[in-house]
Amino acid sequence: MKIVANKEIEDNDAEMSGTAPDGQEQSEAEDLCPSTHIIPKESSLTPAPARLMNTTWCKCATCVSLPTEMESVCCQEIEKLKSHLQGRSCITEHPIFQLYCQREDVVNINLRLVRRFPPPASELNKCLRRVCYRAFSAWIHGYRGEEGPKPIPACVVHKVRSRFPSLQNVFTNFRFSCDPPAEDMAWE
Question: Do 130 and 113 contact (CB within 8 A), yes or no?
Answer without folding.
Answer: no
